[in-house]
Amino acid sequence: MKLIAATVLAAAAAASVLITSSPDSGRAEVGDASPIFGVHIPTGYRQWELIAPAQEAEPLNELRAVLGNAVAIKAYRDQILPFPDGTILAKLAWKHIQSPDFEPASIPGAATTVQIMVKDSKKYPATGGWGFGRFIDGKPADEAQHKTCFACHEARLKARDYVFTRYAR
Amino acid sequence: MKLIAATVLAAAAAASVLITSSPDSGRAEVGDASPIFGVHIPTGYRQWELIAPAQEAEPLNELRAVLGNAVAIKAYRDQILPFPDGTILAKLAWKHIQSPDFEPASIPGAATTVQIMVKDSKKYPATGGWGFGRFIDGKPADEAQHKTCFACHEARLKARDYVFTRYAR
Predict the structure, then answer these.
(1) Who has the most CB within 10 Å: A42, A122, B58, B142?
(2) What is the pTM assigned to this prediction?
(3) Domains of chain A by range and CATH?
């Protein structure tokens, strides 16, 4: 059983890489690329594995979840740094609202942003090997916003290859 | 590309069902079954797709993520209620701590509980078709705790087949 599972999961992982790296895949669905970096929302990212949830305080007041493609998940599991080329991280953010069903709980409200980091050390040598995309309703934010991405990651996270999110075990 | 992706994803989904329903799979890894319901922590649940993150206020003060097996995810996507037999939901909970890297963010700290819901309408007719398991460090909580599960779900969520978590889109 384990062997079958491993084989199928490996095939799925390989397919995931194919899907996300295919030049035609999903572009029609995901709209324009980000300024500066040319990063798209990758097809199928909502099916990727969870790295960790997070919360962002006011004024953003968001619940978030960071998902990773198969390359990203393998790097986290094997504790590989820097992340290999092909790594893609997707941060999904929603407004943070009280559950209508259970008072102590708060849950995702309206979606706010999807933020993507793509590792390609040849394409993005000036930003630690990472390309960034910040999307609101599927549309990339402006160039000014994208100029701020790496500065913040660089200042805080050089020792972890500029990645905030740790794997939640 | 889409056809290949769909085929492989379907194979992975089918394999996931096989993995989680195999009577021998992972029992050695996941310890004892819950009292009353006999629910185990399913093998491979940490690789399941995200349904939604959540936060729980004090006194628990937790960040959470609910993941679902392939049957669960399909039911959510197709908006099928009641959930079909074979649905498994896994709620992962961590203490909610401030990020050491970015002041406005809070992130998962130590893991607190893993809570499982298994749909089997023949096995669990008295509790809406659901079996419950609440695990702390991989060990099931006591019988008294398991007596409280369905009462709370039944009181609040009859219209959604006793499930709190909505899919975060």
Answers:
(1) A42
(2) 0.83
(3) 2-160 (3.50.70.20)
